[in-house]
Amino acid sequence: MRRGNESIPGQPVANIRILSGRAMACVAALLVTATSPVGAIVQSPAAKAPAAVTSGEAPKSATRGVLDSVVFVGASATAGFGVIITDPEKKGRNLPLPLSASFEGAVSNLKPEATLRNFGSSLFFLSPGVTGTAQIDRALELDPTLVVAVDFLFWYGYGDDDGKGGTLASESQRLEKLKLGFRQLERIGASVPVVVGNLPDMSGAVGKMLSRSQMPELRTLTELNESLTTWAAAHPNVVLFPLSELVGKLKSGETITIANLEFKKDGGRLLQSDELHPTARGSLAMSLRIAELLREKLGASAGIETPVDESTAQRRAHAAAQRALDMRAGGKPAGTPMRSTSNPPPSLPAESPAAPATPTVPAKS
Q1: Is residue 333 domain-resident?
Q2: Which residue, 58, 104, 312, 347, has fewest beta-carbon neighbours within 10 Å?
Q3: b/e string for 42-69 if b means 16 or more Cβ within 10 A?
């Protein structure tokens, strides 16, 4: 398997509407990002193996641990759009950071043979129905033990399309569109934990990375999240990630505590200036919250451990980002254990970029 975010067969390009010059520039930037080397499959150094999950509400494989085969699906936050991590020790270069590498920084006891695969796409917004289906297809091929889908549903609620190739006709149609996303996630086996984020209020990004027509009305946003909460309650394997709550904290700029780690106000921004995508610190905060939620859902036997402080998490994430680039380039750094992978079917295209939490075209002028 290759490293970096994977391109998805059938990713629509012909469906791009006529855009303003500013919007076209944004799409061009996203396409460049889509071809830049970013890690999707990463392998961490040898670490204490997590115990098999034997308790909690979400069932799991009787023979594999929850962290043995982790697949990431979703939009730009998952892909790592605009997320750059610097070397805390000032010895290495700045690197792109997909959520999978961030997660490796946030979980300190991944097995050396565990695999993390990232199918996140910064172009998810162009056609959620096609891209979402293709990502789940690819995920199921890998027989995952855990699926992380924190922003998978974002464009099933946001956007100005109906999820079927047409244009959104009304606000109420967003609720029907969201159900299309539910159906895709329901294809994942009931024994596999799935971390699903709810829909945050990203109205601050309107006029920057979001157009007005892509932003749901706040009343609709409430209805979408209520529908999501009801759906999640009916699926015991779903771990609901309160993304709207976390984004509110990231926006506040105040010191926040996640998994016993403090993200201090003076430590740097947690959201990028576009008010839509996380920074490297924000991505780490998301990953730590994922780890925290998994421990709450699955119990201590899930064997999920987190670093003792933010600087340790940053060092681990930077190392994971470097391994991702090294594997994607076809080389292995000396002395670093790498996760073994198999080659993808030859019919699949080469992987594409690292992208953001939920990218989109800037406001139309």
Answers
A1: no
A2: 347
A3: bbbeeeebbebbeebebebbeebbbbbb
The alpha carbon torsion through 131, 135, 137, 142 (nearest 10 deg) reads: 170
Residue 126 and residue 27 in contact, taking contact as beta carbons nearer than 8 Å: no
Token representation of residue 58: 């979400």
Contact 166, 212 (CB under 8 A): no
Please check whether residue 317 is in contact with residue 105, taking contact to mean a CB–CB distance below 8 angstroms.
Answer: yes
Which parts of the chain sit beneath pLDDT 50? 1-5, 7-62, 333-365
Residue holding tokens 């999950």?
A: 53
Domain that holds residue 73: 36-328
15 in a structural domain: no
From residue 241, give the alpha-carbon distance in Å to each of 151, 199, 345.
Answer: 10, 10, 32
C-alpha to C-alpha distance for 166 and 62, rounded to whole angstroms: 43
In a domain, 273, yes or no: yes
Select from 185, 289, 297 the least CA-distant residue to 242.
289
Q: What CATH number does residue 215 fall under?
A: 3.40.50.1110
Say if CB 9 and CB 134 are below 8 A apart: yes
Q: What is the pLDDT of residues 322-359, one digit of tens each?
A: 988 887 776 554 333 344 332 333 233 333 333 333 44
Q: What 3-state DSSP class applies to 42? A: strand
Q: Output phi, psi for 69, to 5 deg.
A: -140, 95
Closest-CA residue to 30 (of 72, 67, 80, 74):
80
Instruction: Please tell me the distance from the alpha carbon of residue 304 to that of residue 239, in angstroms, as a whole number.
Output: 15
* Residue 21 covered by a domain: no
Beta strands at 115-118 and 95-96: parallel, antiparallel or unpaired:
unpaired
Residue 194 CA to residue 96 CA, distance in Å, equals: 25
Q: How far apart are CA 160 and CA 29, in angstroms?
A: 21
The angle subtended at Cα 217 by Cα 216 and Cα 223, nearest 5°, is 85
How many domains, in total, are found in the chain? 1
Instruction: Please give the sequence-ordered ranges of beta strands (E in DSSP) within 76-232, or none if there are none.
Output: 84-85, 95-96, 115-118, 146-149, 194-197
pLDDT in tens, 272-319: 888 889 898 889 999 999 999 999 999 877 889 998 888 889 999 999
